[in-house]
Structures are given as structure tokens and as C-alpha cells.
Amino acid sequence: MGRSLTSKNSIPLYKKYWYDYWVPHPRRRYLESVIGRALKHSPLVGVLGQRQTGKTTLTRRIAGNAYVTLDDAEQLVPARDAPKAFLKRERHPFAIDECQLAPELFPALKLHVQSHPRKGQFILTGSVRFSARKAIRESLTGRIQLLELHPMTIAEAQDRDPIDLMDEVSRGFSSFKRKVENRSASLATEKALAALQAGGLPGICFYRDIEARRPRFSSHLDTILGRDLKLVSETDHPVIKMREVLAILARNQGEPISWSDLARKSRISTASLQKVVEAFEALFLIRRVLPMGDTRKDAFFLGDQGVASYLAPSHARQSDLLRLVYSQVFPHLDLHDPGGVTSYRFETRNGASVPLVFRSAGRTLAILPVALESPDKKTIGSARSFLRHEPKAQVLVLTEGSECVEYDDQLWVLPVTGVL
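The chain above was modelled as a monomer; its predicted structure follows.
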């Protein structure tokens, strides 16, 4: 569980407000140790993620003075004009921040690591998925280990050890129950839900005043939609229109999307809209959830729930609980299987629904958050229906109650804060 969850004046953290333990001082980022391991096995390591997730702070801590950012014009010009000379450095790892701004670098990187295959030479960070840019994709395929820095989770903010749900669940109910009870005792549901307002972008979430955060969220989106979007999309829609589309997705997180309905609401053609959504994915603004069962419709979650709350404030308890669980669970799963976790939404014609299904390393974990003290018959029926479809899966029903109940080896009922 990591260090004791108490403040300096011995007040338990779960009795204090969310922002009281999100004080603005450096945090250990889970990904730092993963980057360290990756540098021992690959000459190139990519650290990607939405703007403001903390990539700069993290990579500067690892690389020290061997760090440059291409947001700086004095660095961008030589990176574009003389990429081979730019890459010649005495200290490694050499960290190049926002490297997608200089596509000319990537053919030079390819040649450099072919001639000098030593491990741990470069850390490349970016706010755009490299696969979305052809020059980067073609140069680096098979030569780079890609990692994603997600927005900070509650556990990360509290400096607890990261949770590997897949591994913990596999150890059996008794062992998992003890850990769940300890975690749920240290975090009240209301305090966890309060994190949805602040989000997990360190450059924004530490502002205690909601009104102080709003202009920073606005500026954050203006930078992404007004500048970064042009790197991955040829759309000529104005920023305000892109905000509208993102707000619609924010209001319907985890729900199956009808492209025709979304096109009607946004007043953008379906073909153009699908390209816009793909661009949002490339910028880490949203994450796609694939259909499973009888449904054929994708669903989406925003990459940061603070951005989502800014765009579309929610007052629906069930939807808030769902986006809380996704925003906290997925980053931890991805940490333990970088790039290997796939998210699904299960639905049948008979009305059975499981909103969160994760597959990683051949294992399947389904999660049903419910805004109830204990699950109702419909929820248990949906869980049973899913297990008939996926007989080797594990299903967790997460409630606002405090009990841990083992229905059988594959179906457990647990308090929601126990897995955060």
C-alpha cells in the first residue's frame, strides 16, 4: 500500500478535501521506473501523452541537462535544418521534447541508431501519437519503445504503489479482499468523485479554486485544437466547432456513439466527423472503447476528466462513477502492460450491459460500477450474461457500499474505492 495515508498534522487524508492532499509539490510518477527499464533495452524510448500530463518535468528529471524542447524556436530551427548534427550529443539519454514538431529528425534518428545501436540514447516526447504522422511512423517502426504518460491518478497523487488489477485479481478473492478493504478505508467515494473536477493534468489540477482552473483548461484546449490539431488533420473547422464536438463526447462518455446522431448535433458531415474524432485520438484527448457482444457501436472516454468536467459538467451519479473508474483503472493497467491493453463495452440485444471490459496479456477483466450500496438483479444478470460470453473472464461489480462479496470464483462485489 505504500506510505501511510496521513497528513503532517495526523489528519487522515480521506477526511480532508481532495485538493488538500493535491498540494503542488513534485510527485513520483509511476512511469519513471518503466522508462528506466525501457532505456536498458531500446536505443529510443518514446514518452507520449496529452499536453500538461507532466512529460517535460519527468523527462528533465531523467535526462538532466541533456534535455531540449522543440517548443523553443532556437532548438527547433537546427533540429529541422541540420538534424544529423543536432543528434550528436555527448550525454545520454538525450531528451527531445515535442519532437513531432520536427519531422526531419526522424529519418536522421533512423540512420543514427542503425549506425550506433547502443541502448538508452534518446527519449522522445510528444503530444501526438507517432502513428498519426507518416514520417515518424515509417522511420521508427520497430526501433522505439513507446510509453504513455497518463494524467495523474488518485493513487499517484497520494504516492501509493500502483495497482496491478489483473495480477491482484488472479491471486484469489481472500488476498484481493484484504487489499480492497485497506484501500477503500483510506478513500471516501465523495472525495474520489471530487477528482473528476480537477482532473489529473499537473499543470492545472493543483489549483484549488475551480474558477482559477477554468481559464487554464480553456488555454489548454486552445493550444491543442488551435495548433496541435493541424499536425494530424487537415480540417478547416474553427476551434469553437472542435470544442463543441469534444463537449458532446464528454457528455456521453462510455455510451455507444451513433455517428449520424453525432453528425446531426455537431452539424458536421459523418465522414468529416470521423476524421476529427481520429485526430482527437491522435492528440490523446479521447480514447476509444470497442464494441463487444451484439453492439457494433464504439464508445469514448476523454483522456482527462478535468477537461471533461470543464466542457460538460455532469450531475448524473452513475455516469460520474463510470468515468471515475475508467480514468483510474485504465492508466494502471497500461502501466503494467504498456500499449497492450484494449478496452471494450459489452452489450446484448436482451439489455445486458457491461460498460468496461479490459483485455491484457491474454486475460479479460470486466467491471460494472453501480451507484448503489449493493448490486441489483439487473447488474448481476448482466455480469452472468457476460460470463456466458467470456467464460474465462473475471467480473468485478463495484458499488458504493462497503462489503466485499464473492458470488463465485469469477464474480465479486467490491467497494468502488477499493480498486482506485
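The chain is about 45% helix and 15% strand.
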